[in-house]
Specification:
The complex is a heterodimer of chains A (309) and B (215). Chain A has helices at 3-9, 28-37, 58-67, 83-95, 125-138, 167-179, 193-205, 222-231, 239-255, 260-278, 296-303; strands at residues 14-19, 43-46, 72-77, 100-104, 155-160, 184-189, 211-216, 284-287. By secondary structure, chain A is α/β, with parallel strands linked by helices. In chain A, helix 5 (125-138) runs parallel beside helix 6, helix 9 runs antiparallel to helix 10 and helix 10 crosses helix 11. By secondary structure, chain B is α/β, with parallel strands linked by helices. Chain B starts with a strand and ends in a 31-residue tail after the last helix. Classes of the chains: A alpha/beta (309), B alpha/beta (215). The interface between A and B is medium-sized, with 37 and 28 residues.
Chain lengths: 309, 215
């Protein structure tokens, strides 16, 4: 049983991080970053060509992380692979001892960096989850053929977007994903506690039995936050955070200190995590540091979160 | 209706390199409506080709260019005309139907775009991708396979912004449209139907249906 499953099922505060494979074949930065995360998180999501931009595969970095002693979470979208290819990835992952996954629809190829690629979308996130659930239950593949071994069992997760109108559509889809086998869900980045509470109320009211981990994106600068507000669906950074970031930039400029906005971003992420944990708003947090994984130890320390508790 | 669009004329002229005597075939149905292969379009094409060194030695506009027997009859127009190549101004199906009926090269002047609705004259929308397993009975009469850029069958992705699709902000999110329509119809419960596996076996091409053989 994976660390994440043990944590969430025993009522502990779950902590996961996220890493992207490189655009290339040198994994050394990722392996260095992995060292910062050891002993601090229950699992590390490895993205699957996030934003439809070409990278090394999720499975490849998952294998390396596993070898390095971390617990990788294999992210899988339906965008680039048919069900045949997807099930093959999971059989291979299981052979390397990878036992936690997260299913996503995937961004469309037209928003990525190789727009000529044919989008596959044979299965959506529900389809990926239910294919794995059916394989577990039957020891058969997605074509109904017997496997030559017992089927691997994955701790299955998915994503959800709390800031969404009409919210009922996200809640409903989450409900379907849970019916298809998802046990935990990581949210799109949240920045504001009241919105997260409203979302959690909606999940409770709909009787969806799933562990929710709030997505945390430490902001690096006001410009980044403004860009995300304008361009990234489901992101809503409040004005108060934008102000703290731009005030920090102004202060840094005045005093000649570099990196103040990033420090403020770390503070704000830590405050949010601390409040989520103390007020027991949801079951854990998922940190999306977008290449700045080395900040995770500081964020967790400031938030007073340790997986050893 | 099969929606077609004219190819750039340079592309057609490149196909016609070395050809002098040309026959033109249009279509009285879809390509006429799309203004790509009707009477007027053939007349314009004739004028263009003739002012660019070609001779148009015959024209035919079958009522439907996808009707094999009908096209066969119409091709008699070219029988004694010493034609070197046919320019087909119908859809891809029409071009192939013509090609099966003549022993001449057939060059398409159109690109075949989609199966579409006619919103009004000259405005067409893609509404059906002919997946072979229609789901619109549970989705308020709106096809998620076509109208959702990811063909999602269980509800929206997280990618909409202000109700617009991440793939093309000119398009509404299909699943928000489906939800609103189901609410209007008093069928909200249908939004909860889990369709984990759409299945694409019925989408394998080329497909053939024979009513006589019952399959």
């Amino acid at each position: 049983m994976s660390l994440l499953q043990q944590a969430l099922e025993s009522g502990k505060f779950g902590v996961t991080a996220e890493m992207a494979p490189p655009k290339g074949c040198d994994f050394s930065k990722q392996m260095e970053d992995a060292e910062y995360l050891k002993g601090l998180v229950h699992g590390v999501n490895v993205t699957d060509m996030q934003s439809a931009c070409i990278k090394a595969s999720s499975l490849g970095l998952c294998i390396r992380l596993k070898e390095a002693g971390l617990e990788p979470i294999l992210q899988m979208t339906g965008r680039d692979r048919s069900r045949i290819a997807i099930i093959g990835e999971f059989l291979t992952a299981a052979n390397f001892g990878i036992d936690t996954m997260l299913a996503l629809t995937g961004d469309h190829t037209v928003v990525g960096d190789c727009k000529d690629s044919k989008p596959v979308f044979d299965l959506d996130s529900c389809g990926i989850l239910s294919m794995l659930s059916e394989m577990e239950a039957s020891d058969k593949d997605c074509g109904g053929n017997d496997l030559e071994s017992k089927a691997p069992v994955f701790y299955k997760g998915t994503s959800v977007t709390p800031v969404y109108e009409p919210q009922i559509l996200q809640i409903n889809k989450l409900k379907k994903k849970v019916a298809c086998g998802a046990k935990y869900a990581q949210t799109q980045g949240v920045f504001e506690i009241e919105g997260l509470k409203r979302f959690m109320d909606a999940v409770d009211k709909a009787n969806v039995d799933v562990h929710i981990m709030a997505g945390i994106i430490p902001l690096k600068a006001a410009g980044m936050a403004k860009y995300m507000n304008a361009s990234v669906p489901g992101i809503d950074v409040p004005e108060s955070m934008l102000k703290r970031l731009s005030d920090a930039a102004a202060e840094g400029k005045e005093k000649g200190i570099k990196g103040l906005p990033m420090k403020v971003g770390i503070e704000m992420a830590a405050e949010l995590i601390q409040q989520i944990k103390e007020e027991k708003i949801c079951d854990g947090v998922h940190l999306m540091t977008i290449g700045a994984e080395k900040n995770i130890p500081t964020i967790l320390e400031k938030a007073g979160v340790s997986i050893k508790e | 209706m099969i929606i077609t669009q004219k190819k750039p004329i340079e592309e057609l002229m490149a196909m016609l390199e070395g050809v002098t005597k040309v026959g033109l075939v249009g279509c009285g149905n879809c390509a006429t409506a799309c203004q790509t292969g009707g009477e007027k379009d053939l007349a314009e094409m004739k004028e263009y080709l003739e002012s660019n060194g070609k001779q148009v030695v015959g024209c035919a506009i079958p009522d439907e260019c996808c009707q094999k027997l009908l096209v066969k009859k119409e091709m008699k127009a070219f029988k004694d005309a010493d034609v070197e190549a046919i320019v087909c101004m119908a859809c891809g199906d029409g071009a192939q139907t013509v090609a099966e009926n003549v022993k001449l090269p057939v060059y398409p002047s159109n690109n075949t775009m989609f199966l579409g609705q006619v919103e009004r004259v000259g405005v067409f929308n893609e509404a059906c991708r002919m997946c072979g397993d229609c789901v619109v009975g549970t989705t308020g009469g709106i096809c998620p396979i076509t109208q959702c850029a990811k063909s999602l069958v269980n509800g929206p992705c997280g990618g909409q912004k202000n109700g617009k699709c991440e793939v093309n902000p000119d398009n509404d999110c299909a699943w928000i449209k489906i939800y609103n329509r189901l609410v209007e119809l008093g069928q909200e419960d249908k939004i909860g139907i889990v369709r984990a596996d759409k299945g694409y076996a019925a989408f394998s091409y080329p497909r053939k249906i024979s009513l006589k053989e019952g399959k």
